[in-house]
Every structure is written in structure tokens, then in C-alpha cells.
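Request: How about a record?
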Amino acid sequence: MMKHQPQTHTQKKTRLEALPQISFQQFVVEEAAMMDKVTNKTVYWCYGVASDGRSIACRVCEFKPYFLGLVPRVHHNKIQAIKESITATYKDKIDSITVVYGKNFYGYNIEREVFLKIKAHDLQTAVSVRKHTTEVGVVLKTDKTPETIFLSSFEAGIPSVLRFMIDTEMTGMCWITLPQNKYTEIWKKTTRCEMEVSIDAADMICHDSAGEWSAIGPIKILFFDIECTGRGGAFPEAQKDPVIQIGNEITVNGETESRKDLFALKGCSDIPGVAVHGFEKEEDLLLAWKEYVCQTNPDMIVGYNINNFDLPYLFERAEALKVSKFRQLGRVVGKNAEMKKSVFQSSAYGTRISHDFKIQGRIVFDIFQVIQRDFKLRSYSLNSVSSHFLKKQKEDVKHTIIGKLQTGNSETRKRIGTYCMRDVSLTRELTDKLMLVYNYSEMARVTGIPFAYVLQRGQQVRVMSRLLRTARGQSFYIPDIRGSGSEEQYEGATVIEPKKGYYNTPITTLDFVSLYPSIMISNNLCYTTHIPDKRPAPELGLSSASLETTPCGDVFVSADVRRGVVPEVLRSLLGARAKAKAELQKETDPFKRAVLNGRQNALKLCANSVYGFTGASNGILPCLAISRSTTAYGRAMIEMTREIVMRRFTTENGYKTNADVIYGDTDSVMIKFGVDSLEEAMALGRAAAEHVTGHFRQPVQLCFEKVYFPYLLIAKKRYAGLYWTRPDKHDKMDAKGIESVRRDNCPIVQKVITTALDMLLLHRDADAAGRYVKQAVSDLLQNRLDISELVITKTFTKEDYAGKQAHVELVKKMRLRDEKSAPSVGERVSYVVVKGIKNAKLYERAEDPLYVLKNNIPIDTTYYLDNQLAKPILRIFAPIVSSPETLLAGEHTRKVSITAPTHTAMSKFVVKVNQCMNCKNKLPGDSALCEDCKPMWKELMLQKTHAANRASEKFARLWTQCQRCQGSLHQEVICTNNDCPIFYMRFKSQADSNKLSEEVKRLELDW
């Protein structure tokens, strides 16, 4: 095969005919891995897709990396000498050095500064020059002693790709137009794209993502998942264990059809709707999948936990097998994809290894990391997440079983394939359901950063991008002053002391709209308006009225003197969000609605993150004066709101009762107006919001948001109530900070608290709620609950803690029983608390739920009552009933099912004796009934037979349900999905059925 040769900008060929204008959506921007071999200059590649689906690689030339060096004022007369010295040192590696006039972004000043804009031909030189001029110094040779001058670097720490995007006005996922005859085609292609072109940076047109340019193009997405098998059922290791299957599904944005392919070692039986490709050798499978990726040429590679499992495993496995070309998965021919491993260590989380991937020209999108970051869930397994969002379950095949299925036959391997493809389809459905591509595309557009940055980096780079773009237009330049991690603290938001209780009258809630962004705008809080040394106004040539001192003592100039860059950025974000929300209300097209909704959410998140950006002491550009002033203004405004409301809405002013602010938290206040109807409460809320808003500077706005009725206020940040936005029907039951929404308890706590709140708030029946809680307590103490409701889960993050942890000690026990099936670091460990010897520690009583079921080990129900249920129940019922403790003690708690522990050291000395099945008296021999109970044989036989039949039917129903989930009614259930609500129920019902069948047999022998 002919080897591809790189094509340089100077070697380009053009057609004789005119080249038409091209527009494409860009989704990957990369600095070339190697500089142009002829010109030795840095170039950038923009990968994208045209509206007709053609893939495009656009090579952008003539953009030089640079930084700005601030020249000290005392050396302004030596600028030419400084330029000559730098040029002499770096010779032809420097492109140009120009004088630029501008202002320092950090701190208010009226005088322009002089900067040297130093452009290099490549990034490495730019970095070297910055270090030399700022740390070593520029040496000026004179007749006397040589003089060394140090420049201060500005905007040198900006990633080169982001610098390129800002200066070309390009944003992430934007559309780019290459004007007619302004670009050339590259004939000797170096990429796998259908079109490969070259253009100068100054000639391309980057569009704002609005109107016709807001669409998401026909992006091709590859969803994939791998299956591997460990030796002897152990957890797979890439150095030793094979990849046996790779499931794939390819979709194109805007199309309904998809392509499904399964690569299977040793092949498998046909799977409906899936093209199965069988291979005898693992090396052939890996190479074939690599070719599949290159030929289908996806724009985006998506999976669930692919960054920390699937991709690292594939890369390391290919390396172990010496499949050298496997890593050539990107769009650059012959170029290996890159995997960067990072190790994070802390006392809290132990050691964690994470990976980042760069597959040239393709986005790698791990939706596991996105969902973990954006949503608060009890568990983040694919099964649990799918159940939560899609209401779907899947068969979960333990790694210990996969090896047996692989070495079986084509049908057992088909089972692995079906399981693998199910994982792929659930990943695709989650991506679609949560609009992840749309939402993250809009975040890239709104913040102006590459899509990959949205996935891999935090909030800091998003805000920095917006600041740089706005500052650039006003000739402000940002210094390189990354924070030192100062531990300086400032007072946070105000929380008005709650007036705890159960309110059976409407409680009106007023919320500030975008409070912190509005404060920063209205008070002109910015780096460019801050006066760090608090100089008096005359020294700055200003009147005293031009300076404003914040409640915490910091000083800023007013907007009349200079409008800050930060307020301007925030105005732009909030204005764009208002526009997107208005368009969303009118739009009917579902795809356009998805884009608009993603956009308004991205704008909101970006605006709200500006405050945190300024307050991050170890961040890119900290300014605690802004963040502490913002919270100080916020505290004052909450207090002022309370005073205004309580002064205005009184009986003296003609209202029925005096208004009372019963609680306030950061950006909202809860008001009791003393009215009985929702209509009145809402009308008063709107009137109060309008009245209070008039006391604040624009754009600060207090608005009526909702009414809680009834309302249960437990403590600071802990409350619940029915949520009303219109008087005819409530929207939902809302709860904050209480166990119905918390994830760190066992499921029974959430179930009991949610049901009790439903009875208290929705049905307003405290007696029924009390009866329900008593019944739940009784069921717990009598072992009538399904074990799944008692399971506690913790992530196994590290082996050693300062004190012994229940889940860690359990893992050690599980390893002794069966090392292969024990959880590994990073997995979640499920456990229940069982009875033990007197004074046994909690970590000694944590046990695997499945082991408990199989060995009939008694649960410590008292632990669950005292340590899980009691406090939440008392907190909720304390404001409602006079003696809430009666819910936890009384007649309903006196009957307790107690079983002696059978797994302790003492239990091995216990001798089992035969008992009468009816009266439990000791019996000689193997009889089932004593002489006194034998006349009742027929009645007992009927009862036990009916019970055995019911248990058998229940088990059969659960078994069939599991078979349906796995996609076959003719195969054994081997699912190990312990997040599934019927997983433990299936084992328990099987044990109950077997036990009752044995009892029936005993009675039959007595006949």
C-alpha cells in the first residue's frame, strides 16, 4: 500500500476551476502533533462535518503562538533594545515582536501599559521566550555593566488551542465557513476525512451559534462496550486476559436508523439486528475493530466508563499482544492515539487512577463521568442509572461467570453478545434521554472552549475563556498570577434562623433571580474596577461619589467611571439565556427545543460559576475581594428583604395579619402572610416581590416563585412541602436535606420517610402517617422486610483507613471466602448489618447480603431502628405530634423476631434438636409432629402445601421476570445485578420455597 506523505501548506495544489464555499460544524480543534516539515511552523487542525454528512479536516495556517510581556514603566525608553536582544537570542524562531498598548486586567488603573507581543513560529519557542524574559531576564549590552530587565508575562498560560480559538473568534462546536477560492484542497491526504483542505487563519469565517448556525450537524457517533474474561473467574487483567467481545452501535444525529456490529472471539450464534463478526485469534479481533473504527470514521466515540476501563484495557491488551497498529484509531493516518494516566492520592479517597484519551480528530465521550458529575444518584452502575432514567433493567453477568460462557458453545457466547449489545444500547438511550450531546455542545458554544475541554476540565477554563474574549475587545490583558492556595476565609451566605414547625397555611417563597451574577452586575464588581490598595478618590483623579465601599470594606469604582468586564460578561450570559428561554417557549421542533434547552442551561451554569471562579484561591485568577463582596451584598439583601416585607405587610397597612419571614437561605425567603387561600398567598407574593425589587439596583430582581402548602420546616436547609405554582393543582412534593432525597442511607429509610411525608403533606393525615411508621417499625423488627431495603452501599476507594470501615473489612472477609468474586478497588460494596456477639463492632457485623440469605444469618433489626430510622422519624414528627418517641416504642415493638446467630465462633458448639412443627416442643427421632399435634396433621398439611405453592409461584414469577430481562425464557438466570429491586427477592423466595417444600416432605413422612 502506498505510504501517505504529509502535505505542507507550500506544496498545496489547486484545481483550475473555482473552489465553492464550504461550511462545516467543527467539533475537534487540535494543534498539529508535529510542526510543518518545510516551514517549521505550528499549524492547527479543525475536524468537522458538513451538513451533507461529509467529514472534513481543515488545516489552518498562519496563526502564530504568542504571549504578552509587560515592560516596566522605567524602561519604556529601552523598548527597541529589548526587542533587539530577544530577536538576537532566538533569531529566526521569532516571527515578530510588536508594541501593544493596553491595560492590566487586575486592578483599576487609568494609565495605559506598554506590552511586547512576542510571536514565535512554534509553541515550544514561545514557552522558552516567556521563561527567559520573565525569569532569567533580557540582557541589554551597554558600554558599562550589562543591564538585565525582567518582563511580566500576560496571557502566557492560556492553552494554545484556546488562544487560537479566541483570536479567530471560534467557539466549541461552531460552524465555520471557508469562502470561495480562499482555501485549497490537499491532494496527498494525511487524514481519513473525506475532504482535506487548507486555509489561512485570517480567511476563515467562524459563526456565532445562533439562528441558522445553531443546528447540530449530522455527527456520526460510535457507542461501544467490551467484554473480557479473567483466568479462573478472577477479575480480568489486560496483561494476561483476553478481550472476547466488542459491541458497537453507530448512529448519525438526526437519523433514526443505526448500525449494530459485534466482534466475537470464537464467534457466536446470530443475534437479531446485529452483524456478528467471528475471529479465531484475539489479535485479529483487535485489528479488525481498529479497521472498523477507521472505516466507519465516527466523529464521536461514546461509552460507559470507557475512560477508566474499556479503552485502557484495549490499549494495554494490544500492547501485551504486540498489536502495534491498534492505537491508530484516529483520523491522522499512521498516528497513534494517546493515553495519559494520572494518579490521584488523598487521605480521604486513597489512590485513584484516571485516564484521558486523545484520538486524533474524534471526541471521546465517557458518559459515566458526566452522569457522576451532573446527577446525585444512589448508585452509578449502568444498571442503576438505566433504571433511574430509563426505567429499564438489564441482565448483569458477573465476571466470574463470563469465562464459562466463553468456553461453552456458540449459544453461550451469544449470551455474552446479547449482554454486551444491551450495554451498548442502554448507553445510547441514556445519551439520547439526557440530551448529553446537545447539552455539552451548547456548553462548548456558550463558553467558547473545545468540546473535549468541557468533558476533561472544570469550571475555571470556561469562565476564563469568556473573560479573555470580552477583555480582548477592550484592550485589557490578563496577567499570569495563578493563586497560591491561600487559606483566607470569608463569611458565606446568610441563613435566616428558621422558625421550625408544621405550617398548615400557605408559605410564600420569593427567590432572587440569578442573585450572585445580579449583585456583581449591579455593584460593578470586577478585576478592572477593584482598587486593591483602597487609595482615596483624589489620588485617582475621581470624586468620592465615584468609589463604592462594599459591606466587607473592599473598594470598587462605579460603572459611571468604568463598566467592568465581569459585569459585561454576566450581562451577555443572562441576556442570551433570557433570549434562549423565550425562543424555547415558541419552538415546536423537538431537535431545536433540545438545542435551546441545552443552551439556556449552559448559560445559567456559566453565569453562576463566575462567582466561584473569583473565589477559588488556588484557581487561575483569584480575587477574593469580588467573591467576599458578593456574599456580603447577598447577606445584606436577604436581611433587607425581611425588614421590607415585615414593615410593609402589616395590619396597620390594611392587611389581614402581619407578615412573618419564617426562613431565608442564600437567595430565597419563605413568608407566612397569614392567609388561608393559595390565590391570596400567590397574589401577596407577587406584590411583595415587586415592592422589594424596587428597593434594589437593576438587574437585581426578586420574583414570586412558589407557595408551599402545607410546609414542614425542620431545620436549616431541611424542609419539605407541597410545591404550588398555580392554585388549581400542586406541581410536586419538594424536599431538601432530608432522608427522602439523601443517598447515604439504606432504601428503607427513604421509603418510610417519603411515604410518611406523602401522608402528612399530600393527604394531611398525621394519624395515618403515624400508623404507617409504626407498621414499618413492626415489620422491621419482625424480619418482614425484603433484605434489599436494608442494604447499605459504599464505594471501596482504598484498602486502609485510620479506623476500621465496615465495607473494607467485609471485602477482606469476602476475599478469604472467594478472592475471585470479591469486590475490587473502585467498585461499590453492598452490605447489611447482622446480629453478632455482645458488644461486637459494626465493622465486624457487616455482611454480604447474598451470603446472609444463603446462610440464613439474622439481621440486626435493632441497629436499623436505632441508627437508621429513629432520627429521621423523630425530626419529621417532632413539629407535628406531641410525643414522637411513641412511634419507636410501644405495643408494635414488643414482638421481635429473634434468631440466634449461626455464623459465630460459639454457634459451632450448638446442637440441633428436632422440634414439633406446630408447638415447637422437643421431639425424639425424626417425627414432624408431637402426639398432641398429630390430630392437626391434615390442617397443617393443607397450610404448608398452600404456603409452599405460593412461594413456588412467587419464585417462578421472579425467575420468569429475570429471564425476560435477559432476553430468553429458555436459559438459566445468572444475573448478578444487585441494584435490581428483585435481585435479593429472587434468592429469598427460592430459599423460602425450598424450606416450605422440605416441611411438606416432613409432614408426608409422618402420614
